[in-house]
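@channel sequence for tomorrow's demo:
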Amino acid sequence: MKLTYLGTNTLLIRKAAEGILVDPHFTRPSLLQLLTPIRPNKQSVRDGLALAGIDHLDGVLLTHTHYDHALDAVEVLSQMGGVLYGSRSAVNLAQAGGLDQGCCMLVEPGKLYSVGPFQVRFHPSQHIPFPAPFGWLMPKAREIAKTVRSPAWFWEYQCGSVYAIQVDHTLIFGSAAIEPQVYRELGINTIVLSVGGLELHSETYLEQLYREAVILSGANQVFLSHWDFFFRPINRNLRPLGLARRTVKRIRALGARHRQSVYTLQFGETISI
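structure tokens (generated this afternoon):
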């Protein structure tokens, strides 16, 4: 497989000419735009797909349904085709956006899905907790209502169920949190770990996250995503969000302690996994 990072937690995974997209986020509304209801920007989605060389997709997979992971999902499928895989919240969002029921797959934890040439499982996970005052601004861990249609307030994009997505032997976390004792013996060799928000947590939290997600899963290499300031338009000059540089250094130190490779994904770079 080949993995291409497209900012936030947007990941294109390819085998030959076939591909899946995880957590598409091309619209990237600014902080000012979040003061009003938001909607997918069709041209931004079109440009982002073209920039990545995507002309069709087997599926779009969502780790959860906060706006920076799910806002563009329906528009991507409208332009590219394919099937949406995700939680009840994801299916509600898709159907409210006019996607046919046959293009939505409500996933069951642990069940195997064949998505084109990819073997996919959705494992239980959690969203990283945010302390006050940051937590006051976060949409809660409820489902997106069936009636939510764009434009909608960013806080209407409720989290829904959170999953770590296994694609063949790679495990993708959309948020820096875990469900304890879930990721053992999955045959994992690569982790994609979302790091957004980790700067607000202690070294103890980080060590527990790394142990559960990486050490116990058996992975030997770690790629870091969701490190960029995702309120700017997509481009090749991503800049870190907040204290993300410090977070990356902390994770690299853990990787060095356990003799594992830790690499920060760069925009547009394609890596064999």
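heads up for whoever presents: The chain has one domain: 2-272.
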